[in-house]
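ZP: hey, is the E4E complex queued? I don't see it on the tracker
AM: it wasn't, my bad. submitting now with these inputs:
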Amino acid sequence: MTAFSFRVRATDGTARLGEISTPRGHIRTPAFMPVGTQATVKAMYPEQVRALGADIILGNTYHLMLRPGAERVARLGGLHAFMDWPHPILTDSGGFQVMSLASLRKLDEDGVTFRSHLDGSEHRLTPERSIEIQGLLGADIQMQLDECLKLPAAREDIARAMELSLRWAERSRRAFEGQPEGRAIFGIVQGGDQPDLRIDSAKALAGMDFHGLAVGGLAVGEPQEVMLAMIETVEPHLPATKPRYLMGVGTPDDILEAASRGIDMFDCVMPTRAGRHATAFTRFGKINLRNARHAEDTRPLDPDSPSEPLRRWSRAYLHHLVRAEEMLAGMILTAVNIAYYQELMAGIRAAIAEGRLAAFRDEVKAGWAAGDL
Ligand SMILES: CO[C@@H]1O[C@H](CNc2nc3cc4c(=O)[nH]c(N)nc4cc3[nH]2)[C@@H](O)[C@H]1O
C-alpha cells in the first residue's frame, strides 16, 4: 500500500513545484482543489472535474455528518464509492462551518455543540468525533478540528482560539492513530492577524507529527495584504518538506500571490459559486454573461483556451442561457471556471519549473488588466 508522501521537485524563490503521493493517486502542486461540500462539485460530473485537471476535491464533515450522516456514508462504502470519485479527497473538520453556518453554538474546552442549519437538531463535534467522521467518510487527507475566528477580532480572543486549536491539534492527531496506512492528517495554523501568535502556532504544529500544515483563519474578511503578510510571517516556520495548504483561498490573484509565497494547496468556492451566478473567469478577467453586450457576440469565451468549455459555445448562447435561467448556464460556467482555475495552476507549475514565476505572474495580471477584448 502506498504511503502518503510529498516531494519538492523545483523551487522559484519561496514558490515550490511538488507532488503529493497518496494510495488513490498523485496530486500536482501547487494544486487547486474544487469544493465538493455535499459529496458533489456542484453542477459537474466527477469525470468532468477530473478531465478539466483536478487531482483532488474537497468534502466537508459538517455538511456530511448532518446529511446523509457519516455512519450511513460508511455503510454505503465511503465517500469515494458513494460519489464515484476514485481520486484523492480532502475533508475539512467542520469547525469553520459550525461557526459560519450552524446556530446556537456552545464552544467549550472539549468541543462544540450546535444546532443543524437544516432542521435545528442538536449535534456535538469534538476533535475525536471529527476525525472519526473523516475516517468513516474515508478521506485521504483529514483536517484537525480547530476554532477559526472571523477578522477583525480582539487579540485576546485570537490568542485564546489559537491556543485551544493547538490543544485540539494534539487530540486530533492522537485520534487519527490507527486509521489505514496512506491516509494523512494536517494541522491548522491559527493566530489571526497577529504575527507573534501566528509564529507560536506554526512552531508548535511543526513539532507535532502532521503530514502537512494548513494556514487557517484567513479569507475571513481581511484585506489581501493582511492575508499575504500572515503567509510571509509563518512561511519560514513551516517545514519545507511538508505540504502547505491555505484554506478557503481564493481568487486567481490570491492564488498567484500565495503560491509565490510558498503555498502548495488551495480550495475555494469562488469558481463553482461564480459559475452559478453568470460569471466566467478567463484570461481576460471576469466576464458577467448577464450583460446585454454579449447578446449577439458570436465569439467563444477564449478561442485559445486548452479547455473545451471556453472554446465551444458563443457568448451570445451563454448570455441567452443565463437570461433564460436555464440549468445549463450554471453547468457550463462552472466547468468554464474550474477549467480556468486548473489552467492557471498548470501555468503556475510550469512557470516554477522554468524559474519564471514572477514573469508569469506579470503576464497573467496584464491579461486580466487588459480586460475582455
Ligand atoms: C472567500 O470565500 C468565503 O470565505 C470562505 C472561504 N474562507 C475560508 N477560510 C477558512 C478558514 C478555515 C480554518 O481556519 N479552519 C478550517 N477548519 N477551515 C477553514 C475554512 C476556510 N474557508 C468560503 O466559505 C466563502 O464563504
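AM: back. The chain has 15 helices and 16 strands.
ZP: great, adding it to the tracker
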